[in-house]
Structures are given as structure tokens and as C-alpha cells.
Amino acid sequence: MPRTVDHRQRRAGICDALVRTAARDGLHAVTMRSVAAEAGVSLRLVQYYFATKGGLMHAALLHLEEHSHRRWNERLAALPSPAPARARLHAFVAEAVPDDEESRVFHLLWTSFAVLAMTDPALAEQPFVSGPERLERQLADLLEEARTDGSLPADRDPALEATRLLALTHGLGTDVLTGRLTPDRARAVAEYHVDRVLDGQPAP
Questions:
Q1: Is the model's pLDDT at 204 over the cut of 70?
Q2: Per the omega criterion (within 30 degrees of 0), is the bond before 127 cis?
Q3: 85 close to 152: Cβ distance less than 8 angstroms
Q4: What mean pLDDT is reported for the chain?
Q5: C-alpha distances in angstroms, 179 versus 25, 76, 93, 113, 114?
Q6: Does pLDDT of 1 surpass 50?
Q7: Contact indicator for 181, 98 with CB cutoff of 8 Å
Q8: Which domain holds residue 188?
Q9: DSSP summary character for residue 21
């Protein structure tokens, strides 16, 4: 009998090849051909699953996003139940700060994609900001829950605080990648911010 093709697995394998190539050579050096060679498949197969380089890059970002969310969920599952909002926000901070190879590559690729999209119309067409927007909504929902149960002061705007926390962790992540901050220092800064927000203190 002919072997059944797992298209999801094939797509994931190609995305993994792009991630390895970009982590080694930089996202600017990635081509459809180099990804095919890294994946050990034909260029035609890569083009079958991904019509453009921009589409392939966006798919790889979504692939990494899924991994990051899985890791955050694993951190949440390890917390006592029911976990307080502070603990869940600290778990987000722990995942958002790049302190291992997988999280470092995710942050590096997303930042590189954003920079390239500023000058490459083909990349700018990809909805790559949809990932951060989804994450921001999740944080806003968590902060809204915290305000409802009294963990977050009533005068705080959950949506605004979610935007601020996401922007802070993105910036801290870049500082970690450039070596300006250690992961421990970046995590301490983000946790300090979370604690001040939940304790109702003004931003420093």
C-alpha cells in the first residue's frame, strides 16, 4: 500500500529547517533553496507547501510561536492550582525572556523578520504581528481576571497593562540577545514591573 503522507509533519520539518538555517546564517541569508537543502528535500517540495519565501518565514514564526505557547502552558501547569495571577504573569515573564537556545532563536527570528519587513514589501505583506497581538489579548484577559478577583487594582486598565508588559519583555529580550543584560537581570526587571502593577504602585 502507498505510504500516507503526513503533510503537517512535512510542513513542520521544513519550518524546522528554516529555523536551523536562520539561527546559523541569519534570516537575511535564508532562501527557499537553502531551506530545502537543510531539510533534505527538493526545492519543488518546499515550493509546493510554501508559495513564497515570505509565506515560509511567516509559517516558521507561527511554528515557533506554537512551541513558545506550549512551554508557557507547561510552566502554568507546574504551578499550584488555582494559581494566583502574579504567579501566572511571572510564568509568562520566565518564558518571554530568552534564556535557552529555543527561546533565543524565537526572539532572534521574530526581531529579524520585523526589521527585514520594514524594507521588503513581500515580507511586510505577511501578518507577522498577529502573534504578538494574540499574546497581548491573552495577557489582557489574564489581567482582566486579576482585576475581577481583586489582584489588580480597579483603576488599572488591563489592555493597557498588557501592551506595556509585552513591549517591556520584547525590549528586555533584545537586550539579552545583544548581551547588554543577562537573562536573570532581565527577568528580575520584568518581575519587578509586574509586582508594581499588581501592588498598585506607579510605574518608576
A1: no
A2: no
A3: yes
A4: 89
A5: 19, 28, 18, 20, 20
A6: no
A7: no
A8: 62-198
A9: H
pLDDT in tens, 116-135: 888 877 777 777 677 888 89
> What's the structural domain count of the chain?
1
CB 14 within 8 A of CB 49: yes
Q: Distances in Å between the alpha carbon of 42 and those of 13, 18, 25, 35?
A: 13, 14, 20, 9
In the numeric block, which cell numbers belong to residue 84?
Answer: 494566583
Residue 29 placed within a domain: no
Position 9 in a domain: no
Own/partner contacts of 44-52, CB < 8 Å, gap of 24 or more, are: 45/10, 45/14, 46/14, 49/7, 49/10, 49/11, 49/14, 50/14, 52/122
Residue 163 lies in a domain: yes
Q: Among 36, 177, 64, which residue's Cα sits nearest to residue 128? A: 64
Domain assignment of residue 8, yes or no: no
Q: Choose among 203, 174, 198: nearest CA to 186.
A: 174
Lowest-confidence pick of 38-42, 57-61, 140-144, 155-159: 57-61
Cα atoms in the 13 Å half-sphere on the side-chain side of 43 = 6
- Within 13 Å of residue 93, how many CA atoms lie on the same side as its CB? 24
CATH number at residue 141: 1.10.357.10
Euclidean distance between CA atoms 170 and 57, whole angstroms: 20
